[in-house]
Design brief:
Elements lengths: L7 E3 L6 E3 L9 E2 L2 E2 L1 E3 L2
Antiparallel strand pairs: 1-2, 1-5, 3-4
Length: 40
């Protein structure tokens, strides 16, 4: 699924949470692992 403005992502390692405000490209990564989209 493509990343879209407004989506939220969570790092399963450290708990960081981000909200997309601008789409660039690539994959969101934290602590060396891809972040998972949060439903909400």
């Amino acid at each position: 699924m493509a990343i879209q403005v407004g989506q939220e992502y969570l790092c399963k390692v450290c708990g960081n949470k981000v909200k997309v405000v601008a789409v660039g490209g690539g994959v969101l990564v934290c602590c060396g692992v891809p972040m998972k989209q949060v439903e909400g």
